[in-house]
Write a structure and sequence with these properties.
Keywords: Signal. InterPro entries: Beta-barrel_OMP_2. Residues 21-190 form the Outer membrane protein beta-barrel domain. Residues 1-20 form the signal peptide. The chain is mostly beta strands and 212 residues long. It has a single domain, classed as Porin (Beta Barrel), CATH 2.40.160. It has one helix and ten strands, in the order H-E-E-E-E-E-E-E-E-E-E. The chain has one helix at 2-20, and strands at residues 23-35, 47-48, 50-64, 67-86, 89-112, 115-139, 143-148, 161-173, 177-186, 201-211. The chain has an eight-stranded antiparallel beta barrel. It starts with a helix and ends with a strand.
């Protein structure tokens, strides 16, 4: 019994020490977004990366030497862009969406120089909260139009829920400053039309942050 009590006390002490090492961070940067398939038929040859942004708050929870779990809450800009030119007129169609995401990444740290290289991956679940399609032409024929996207109802333009896998890599200095890059691989179909194209998010990201 004495040994069992000592073991429980030691376990609690270890858990408390591990919990005290939990740190928190904030990172932000550039997203370069597109879809796995074109969202607008006939524009396959005009697909471009859509530049937008992200902001993520996260907790870093050590679970083993050099290994952590990072749950977070993120504001993610995504979408797609199509741009072409013909007869002196340039046309651009941009699909912008904003979503709230909850990522849970497993991260491994490799000591290197004054900091650590980190590699990670994990699932995420997101929910689209706003979206807009912007059409613009310049040159010989100038016009512009904005249309809000609908994420609910029988006539919705896009599914609200999305899930996928994150991949990330970067470098964290000993003072907490970090540089990171990532890739978001969407796995769920954004197209509400089951007979239509299977449209999924593809997002490259780069940014900086700080871990307290």
């Amino acid at each position: 019994m004495k040994r069992l009590i000592l073991a429980v006390i030691a376990s609690l002490a270890f858990s408390g020490a591990a919990f005290s090492q939990v740190s928190y961070g904030l990172k932000a940067g550039l997203n370069l977004a597109k879809y796995s398939e074109v969202a607008i038929e006939g524009l396959e040859d005009y697909a471009k990366m859509n530049p937008t942004f992200y902001v993520t708050g996260f907790a870093d929870i050590p679970v083993a030497p050099q290994f952590s779990i990072q749950p977070g809450l993120s504001l993610q800009g995504k979408g797609a862009k199509y741009k072409g030119e013909e007869g002196g007129t340039t046309g651009t169609i941009t699909i912008n969406t904003m979503s709230i995401e909850i990522p849970v990444n497993a991260v491994y740290y490799i000591p290197a120089g004054p900091g650590s290289v980190f590699l990670g991956a994990g699932p995420y679940a997101g929910y689209n909260i706003s979206g807009k399609i912007k059409s613009k032409t310049t040159g010989n024929d100038e016009s512009s139009e904005d249309t809000d996207l609908s994420f609910s109802g029988d006539d919705k333009d896009m599914n609200a829920f999305e899930a996928g896998i994150n991949f990330l890599a970067g470098y964290k200095l000993s003072n907490g400053f970090l540089i990171n890059a990532g890739y978001g691989l969407g796995l769920t179909n954004l197209n509400p039309d089951s007979d239509g194209q299977n449209i999924k998010n593809r997002v490259i990201s780069v940014g900086v942050g700080f871990q307290f």
